[in-house]
Amino acid sequence: MSTHYLFGMTLAELQQVAAELGLPRFAAGQMASWLYQKRVSSIDQMTNLSLKHRELLKTHYEVGTCPPVEAMRSVDGTVKYLYRAAETKFVEAVFIPDADRATLCVSSQVGCKMNCTFCMTGKQGFSGNLSAREILNQIQSLPEFPQLTNIVMMGMGEPLDNLDEVLRALEIMTASYGYGWSPKRITLSSVGLRKGLKRFIEACDCHLAISLHAPIPALRRELMPAEKAFSITEIVDLLRGYDFSKQRRLSFEYILFKGVNDSLAHAKELLKLLRGLDCRINLIRFHAIPNVDLQGCEMEQMVAFRDYLTSHGLFTTIRASRGEDIFAACGMLSTKKQLEEHQLTL
Questions:
Q1: Helix (H, G, I), strand (E, B) or coil at 254
Q2: Strand-pair category, 79-86 with 70-73
Q3: CA of 307: how far to CAs of 4, 117, 159, in Å?
């Protein structure tokens, strides 16, 4: 018999549970408070529900949170956590403390279908979508949860390829019955799945980051096979239809590869592509991964690239690299090894 979990349910879903079990309607709000604000791990801890109602709940449901199974700590303070996602599957989440900010990089899928040339997650292949419960568990079960200031949906997977579950998780993160966080604390990163992108922008107010990496479609196609189906020019055209000049931030992620996309000509093409769009560029250093014949730029070249774009009116930053020594940096997340090791022990 399959196990049913309360954690990861929206308020509407908890109301349905209450109705089905004959609990008073207000019990849904009580459950939500215990799950997301008091962060209990068992139904027995929901003490303002009657004993009878708790026992009834326990015959059908569990809370459903689970701690990370492994932690790796970087010399720079970054911590990479391994979470079990299904019986034989795992995902990684990365905690990044930085002065008065503490960011968690969250996964939305086991592996990824996008198969970007420079990303270890893509090399792992795709094993399945995470449920809202499994997405939120990376946050709720984080030992450093009280310190969190920001969430980035930039871990394993393409969030817009699992949009129903991602939007449920985002609702719980931002709703008053859930964590009650401002959408400004959350950024979702995507290669730009057109249909999902439109729905995401219209369904919530979280920040958006687009994985760009090349301003010329033919070059982007070499680095990112998704360009064939989701053209960067079409993505930018779609984004021009929305207002990013107020609270919501639009950014483009751009990994600089030596001799591939780092020239002045590429910078000029970037300016042309994004002209008139209220956005910023995050330049990212490439972190070498096995069996990929790409090299990162020298910092001097990254600074020159940044300065050229900034001097021409495109706000550009160089993102600090964190956790490279534990394979926790951008593009380095993969649980293929853990899965193989687990299968060996079965």
A1: strand
A2: antiparallel
A3: 53, 27, 31
Summarised one tens digit per residue, pLDDT across range 296-316 is 999 999 999 999 999 999 999
**CATH (one of 2.60.40, 1.10.150, 1.25.40, 1.10.10) for 11-60:** 1.10.150
* pLDDT tens digits along 137-180: 999 999 999 999 999 999 999 999 999 999 999 999 999 999 99
Residues carrying an active site annotation: 92, 330
Sheet of 186-190, strand order: 70-73, 79-86, 89-98, 101-105, 150-153, 186-190, 207-211, 250-256, 280-285, 316-318
Beta strands in 87-218 (DSSP E): 89-98, 101-105, 109-111, 126-129, 150-153, 186-190, 207-211
DSSP three-state, residue 242 = coil
Whether this model's pTM surpasses 0.85: yes
